[in-house]
Amino acid sequence: MFPYFTGNIKFAINIQVMTEKKLPKADQAILNKLESQDRAIVLAAIRKLHESGNSAYLPKLIEILSQTDDEEIGKGIRKILSEIKHRDTIPILIEAIQNKDYSGVLQPLISACWENGLDYSNHLSLFIDLVIEGDFMVAFEAHTVIMNMSGKISQDIVDKESNKIKRSLLDADESKKQLLHDILDFLPVFEQGIEPQQF
Q1: Tens digit of pLDDT for each residue in 117-128?
Q2: Any idea where the domains of the chain sit in the sequence?
Q3: Band of pLDDT at residue 6, cut at 50, 70 and 90
Q4: Strand pairing partners for 108?
Q5: pTM, rounded to two decimals
Q6: What is the residue-wise DSSP string for 110-175?
Q7: How many CA atoms lie within 13 A of 60 on its CB side?
Q8: pLDDT of residue 32
Q9: Which residues are registered as beta bridge partners of 151?
């Protein structure tokens, strides 16, 4: 996020918060273009948003992603989700992942979480649930998000999530058992503290 920054981390976080507060709101004219029946207008708007990286448009983009059959439009939206770096992206993606209306695009929404390099460690339990309950590809993407988390978690969280995984292993598909064992091995390391990934 701040790969060049070597000073106080609290200062870095404050800079990030200030930066995010200055992000522009969604422009109705651009929203209208995203809703256009003209494919060329929609694609042009998506390209413009990819350049600006404004997270205010993500709810609309995710809605379009869930409804479109157009491969190029879908690819453009997935590219935005996978490359955006604003921390306010996190609650938007988490809410979308939990929204049953977007179950058809669950896999790309989850993969965006590890691709964009943001910190989803506060949502560890959700991603473990996705590994346990999802099909193999959803589980694989959620596993990748977990294995790219950083920071520290409490022993209570380790115990709670480990017990949940151990119970799930009794009925887990063979294809997912290794993913679950990987997470079991990872949780004690996470509790000790993991440095952020360098991007």
Answers
A1: 999 999 999 999
A2: 1-118, 120-199
A3: very low
A4: none
A5: 0.83
A6: HHHHHHS----GGGHHHHHHHHHHS-HHHHHHHHHHHHT--B---HHHHHHHHHHHHHHHTT--HH
A7: 19
A8: 96
A9: 194
